[in-house]
Amino acid sequence: MASLSSCFAIATVCILSVLIKARATVPIFVFGDSLADNGNNNNLNVPLLDKSNFAHNGIDFPGRIATGRFSNGFNGVDYIARFLGFPIGPPPYSSITKPNQMLRGVNFASAGSGIQDYTGPGTINMTTQIKNFQKVAQVLRQMLGQSQAEHTIATSIFIIVTANNDMFEYYFATGAANAASNDQFINNLADRFIQHLMSLYNSGARNFYIAGTGHLGCVPFLTSKNPAGTCIDTLNQLSMKYNTIASARVSQLSSRLQGMRYSYSNIYRMTSDIIESPTLFGIADVQNACCGDGKFNGEVQCTANVTYCHNRNDHFYWDWFHPTQAIYRITSQMAFFGSLIYSTPISIQQLVMGI
Ligand SMILES: *[C@@H]1O[C@H](CO)[C@@H](O)[C@H](O)[C@H]1NC(C)=O
Ligand SMILES: *[C@@H]1O[C@H](CO)[C@@H](O)[C@H](O)[C@H]1NC(C)=O
């Protein structure tokens, strides 16, 4: 925290940062998959690959704790929370024991889940994540009273990071080889996503940050299986198509729903820029997982049994499916403060300043 004397010395900067902090500590409610989960799966009866609460995960997290984040350190939600003035993202729903732990927001995300409730069997599916939010909203009404609770929810940010596992499962099941089936799959996915947004809107949510999907075909798990060692183009195409259709549907929805505001981030564009000019972003390796084993370190999960790299800050991938905290930080900065080539129609910062 800036001391009072440095406030006087650089008065305008100080006033600005105080204003941003005062406006900006809005609660955050988080929904989605392993890119956002921070511990909800830890005690769930799901396959090992949907868990991460063991070494070497968390090796760069404060205290070297493996919290259940799929990262060597923080994840993207943590960085967005930090830009908003919080030390870290909101607590996982599974860890909450007292109502006042809900006041800065709650994370409902579950690794392995998707937009479709049948994606990631055994994980906390999206319908249940939203039901869990509705339970929290009920507790907030009891704690704060009806109108204050409604105001709190309407001035919170709803972060949604999903669709990745739906596309992975579809690709594994079908190879995504049929253009007509792909179109139908993507349209159904976008429709279902809109239904979830409407459920949240009907529960009082007004401000949404939606993370788009990135280069799913480039994760080390898939490139390690590709004899050419290159990205799976059909899956990248699917991801791009999803973003085009989903962002258009969200735009239409926002013009129908009074008071709905949103930022949809073009993660695909961000990761293209990083992959094309990694050194501009301080990244040296965009191919190998830091933690894992086999080709590209992408053949097995990051567990205590495998090795990990020491130059984690210059790797794109932490493990076979997930980025390092360096990439979570860079993409979160782009989504929060970055140019509008990365966000439609506004950045997260603009979303927050308008609340
Ligand atoms: C979603 O989760 C709920 C609660 O676990 C479960 O009852 C429901 O069957 C799930 N839906 C699907 C399609 O798996
Ligand atoms: C590590 O390897 C041992 C012996 O093969 C195995 O029993 C254990 O389950 C492995 N642990 C993890 C986290 O994969």
What does this structure look like?
It is a single chain. With about 350 residues, the chain is an alpha/beta fold. The chain has one domain (about 5-25, about 125-355). It is built from twelve helices and eight strands. Strands 2-1-3-4-5-8 form a six-stranded mixed β-sheet. It has a two-stranded parallel ribbon with strand order 6-7. Helix 7 (about 180-200) packs parallel to helix 9 (about 235-255). The protein is globular, with a radius of gyration of 20 Å. About 50% of the residues are buried. The structure holds 2-acetamido-2-deoxy-beta-D-glucopyranose (2 copies).
SSE sequence, one letter per element = HHEHEHHEHHEHHEHEEHEH
The value of Rg in angstroms is 20 Å
Can you give the helix content as a percent range?
40-55%
> How many domains?
1
* Mass-distribution shape: globular
Give the overall average pLDDT.
94
Q: Biggest sheet, strands in spatial order?
A: 2-1-3-4-5-8
By DSSP, the count of extended strands is 8
Bound molecules: 2-acetamido-2-deoxy-beta-D-glucopyranose
Beta content comes to 5-15%
Major sheet attributes: 6 strands, mixed
Distance between the termini: 24 Å
Number of helices: 12
Structural class: alpha/beta
Which regions contain 5 or more consecutive residues with pLDDT less than 50?
1-19
